[in-house]
Amino acid sequence: MKFAGKVAVITGSGRKQGLGEAIARRLSEEGATVVIADIGGSRDAATPDAMIGAEAEMREIAASMPGAASTFSCDVRDPDQVRALAAHAVAAHGSLDIWVNNAGIGYIMKPLGEVSPEDWRAVIDVNLTGAWFGLQAAAEVMIAQGRGGRIVNIASQAAKSGFMHAQAYTASKHGLVGLVRSASIELGAHGITVNNVCPNHVTTGLGKWQNEHFAAVQGISVEEYLRNMASRIPLGRPGLPEDTANAVAFLCSAEAAYITGESMNVSGGEEPH
């Protein structure tokens, strides 16, 4: 129970079988009290119901956690809502010790010439600016508490390599590498570590959509697309949500107290950079 007495916020954790749920469950299994945070409902065209965590699903996920949990609806594009999320953790559970920026848009994928300014802004606003808002809000609380903390962003293999139809996504994830390199320098004196986890493809609900999209782009079946993907991975399979969750748990643990500013690949050997 290495996280007993710790309170963890995980954004984008309101969809079943998603990375956020797996991360929350892994931390909860080790004793953390978790806050299941997601947007709660569609706000605009960039946040369709099929791709976001709704309040009812958030409550079901919280109820399924091994330990104490609460929910909080938050649009990470709004810094006031993000600060309110941090305040909820303290008010409801007494502290804020772990913050995981997992919320992201990975479903706006178009050829370069078809990407609109609105598409670009939507992805950058959630994936990069939203992570910055979360990092800033968490750091403010953790510095005030005076006992350090852990901040982890869920980046991607796209933080290291480029992918077709993913210009904004790749740019946003590359941006997270620079963000943790800079933030870790400032927050180290406060005992706060800041790191990225960079998973390769994981077939979550979003991952299933991506499988179908890129298979169609290549004119092959989803089965062939997945076989081709597995053939590029030394360990022979795409990632699982638990692979990412285990890496997050390590970076949030005492064993990783001397690791900060890093972007850890969790790719089965596919991404060497």
Automatic annotation (TrEMBL):
Keywords: Oxidoreductase
Superkingdom, taxonomy of origin: Bacteria
Transmembrane segments: none
Presence of keyword Transcription: no
CDD domains: SDR_c
UniProt keyword annotation of Flavoprotein present: no
InterPro entries: NAD(P)-bd_dom_sf, Sc_DH/Rdtase_CS, SDR_fam
PANTHER family assigned: DEHYDROGENASES, SHORT CHAIN (PTHR24321), ESTRADIOL 17-BETA-DEHYDROGENASE 8-RELATED (PTHR24321:SF8)
Family of the protein in this entry: Belongs to the short-chain dehydrogenases/reductases (SDR) family.
UniProt-recorded name of the protein: SDR family oxidoreductase
Organism of this sequence: Novosphingobium jiangmenense
